[in-house]
Amino acid sequence: MKRFLLPLLAAIGLGTASANVNPEWIKADFNGDGRQDVIATTNLKDVVFNDRGEIIFYHVKATAGTRFIQAKGEGQNTTYDFNRLKSQVNLVRSGSGLQVVLPGNTAKPSTVQPPRVGKNAKGQLTATFNYQQGDVSVTKSVVLQPRQFGFDVETNVTGADRYDLNFSGLARNNNPSTKAVQQGAADVRTSGSVDNVRYAALQEAINPFFDPQSQFKTALIVRPIGDTRFGATLQGGENARLTLTGLTGNARLEVYGGKNELIRLYKEDFLREPGLFRPNVFGDLSLLIAQLMDILYRFVGNWGLVIVAITVLIRLAIWPIMQNQMRYTTKLQFVQPELQKINEKYADDQQKRMEATMALYKEHNVNPAGCLPVFIQIPILAVLWNTMRNFEFNSGLFWLPDLSIPDPLYILAVLYVAANLLSIYIGTRKAPQMFKQQAFIYVIFAYFAITFPAGVTLYWILSSLVGIVQQILINRQMERTMASLNVSRVAPAGGPSVSPSAPKSSKPLPNANQGGQAKNKRQKE
């Protein structure tokens, strides 16, 4: 399918929404200093190392799979355009990251060997850097996970009693929060020097209630691996800096440079660190959903099937709420002709119009508060959506190469619009004007279906399909109830209304408590 659709999309100028970035190393002079740098590019990040293994540029991708590096030519004649990448936010705001500092050593790095880069059997990107600084020999190795923001670093320094590692700045934030916790402690230190740290971090602050920019907030977290021990000096403000101190000989550490977001930190096992991230109530719900998804994956072994299962389970859980809301909407459509007559009759008398409207609602058992369930379900669905868009799905489904990136063929976007238009049509058959108003909104939402991860769009489609089934069942139930009480019967979608025994004029809607009384009242009249 891709072989035929991709050329067609290119021919009409659409291209693809995104592409699955194959993790690889690129060798090129990134900053124009005449020295060869190496660039690790993955779905989640682009990281530029100089020939000493210092990070000079680190971009966290807001949309996974986005390509910021353009290759020109083939083979040995390949050149790269980094202008688009350079225009993005750099996690290392100034200076460089992973910079080895030798106290008292004023010699300049020399005898720098070309970096050795490659990819191991697990698909991890590996690189080794070697250089001399006076009498000191520095070897630095990095292992980058293609589907994670975290990566491992190992430094080996000989000829020096101790050394430090510098991480400067944090993205676009001039005043990130600084944190560190000692081994065996739970108290969070936010400034000064901390010995024997469990972790040290620079984080962009997030509004705990609502933050529309939360998807763009980042964090830099460092923690030791194995028996490695070091301290940390925290410096905030405009020149924010995180310095790891007291390192000796061979040291191993784990570095997280990515989104300062609950689900991502959970998936990469940083959420367990004390004081690092405090979720609110909605965050706790997101975490429960993420844990449930992990459990389901152990049984089905495919993230696409997990999305299907979790969507159905959540929709079934809120079925009663949705059912009440849909019944309310359906009843409103059936009494709409009577409401229109009331509005025309009492156009100049608001008090009588309100009294007549409430009397009509009471006669037909239409609760004016029936729309409240929709506000109850919104937080639940929002939590589920937020979990989906931050979850890392490391597999594809059908034509989709990766559920963590947008659908490159736009098929899901088309299905999303079609499913929602069908849902609106079924729910507003008695009010064509409502269909026109709501349909326009979902056509606009097609843009988000194009840019969001395929897993999120798949969830939207499945959720809409479950809602369609629910609306059809409710419509049929309403039709059977009306027919049994000899009230106007609604024809199938697209067909005319049928009234085998009732007059063509609108009649009161049946309800469980007042149906018999209303019928007797009409007979007496």
Automatic annotation (TrEMBL):
Alphabetized InterPro entries for the sequence: Membr_insert_YidC (IPR019998), YidC/ALB3/OXA1/COX18 (IPR001708), YidC/Oxa/ALB_C (IPR028055), YidC_ALB_C (IPR047196)
GO molecular function, one term: membrane insertase activity
Pfam families on file: 60KD_IMP
Low complexity bias (residue ranges): 491-508
Bilayer-crossing regions: 295-318, 369-388, 408-427, 439-462
Start and end residues of each stretch annotated as Disordered: 491-525
Membrane topology: Multi-pass membrane protein
Gene Ontology cellular-component annotations: plasma membrane
Any GO BP: protein transport
Domain Membrane insertase YidC/Oxa/ALB C-terminal: 303-476
Keywords from the UniProt entry: Cell membrane, Chaperone, Membrane, Protein transport, Signal, Transmembrane, Transmembrane helix, Transport
Annotated signal peptide: 1-19
Entry's localization field: Cell inner membrane; Cell membrane
Top-rank lineage group of the source organism: Bacteria
Function: Required for the insertion and/or proper folding and/or complex formation of integral membrane proteins into the membrane. Involved in integration of membrane proteins that insert both dependently and independently of the Sec translocase complex, as well as at least some lipoproteins. Aids folding of multispanning membrane proteins.
Complex formation: Interacts with the Sec translocase complex via SecD. Specifically interacts with transmembrane segments of nascent integral membrane proteins during membrane integration.
Family per record: Belongs to the OXA1/ALB3/YidC family. Type 1 subfamily.
Protein name, entry field: Membrane protein insertase YidC
